[in-house]
Design brief:
Helix content: under 10%
Strand order of the largest sheet: 2-10-9-4-5-6
Order of helices and strands: EEEHEEEEEEE
Strand content: over 45%
Number of strands: 10
Largest sheet: 6 strands, mixed
Structural class: mainly beta
């Protein structure tokens, strides 16, 4: 059974940091590229960052230099370190396979506000 469980979100002030985690079932993690996506209120879901099984990364321009994606293949876990957070980063963050996504998890809410 496919499972994606995101955690680590919360309320943070502008300029602050958060670290998101994504626990995935082994069947969908081991050989696939994975991505972090986000959906802000009233907007479409967008890809924030992705990482191949070998560790190559891509970042959306809006987060480049502030976010870092990483994965631990032995633990079937992926991370997103978010620094210098801005109010426009406020969204529900999801993890999923890339590019062919599977059923979405519940996501984790990130709110950047003073």
């Amino acid at each position: 059974q496919v499972q994606l469980v995101e955690s680590g979100g919360g309320l943070v002030q502008p300029g602050g940091s958060l670290r998101l985690s994504c626990a995935a079932s082994r069947s969908i993690f081991s050989s696939y590229a994975m991505g972090w996506y986000r959906q802000a209120p009233g907007k479409q879901r967008e890809l924030v960052a992705r990482i191949t099984s070998g560790g190559s990364t891509y970042y959306a321009d809006s987060v480049k230099g502030r976010f870092t994606i990483a994965r631990d293949n032995a633990k079937n876990t992926m991370y997103l370190q978010m620094n210098s957070l801005k109010p426009e980063d406020t969204a529900v963050y999801y993890c999923n396979r890339f590019p062919s996504v599977l059923a979405w998890g519940q996501g984790t809410q990130v709110t950047v506000s003073s």
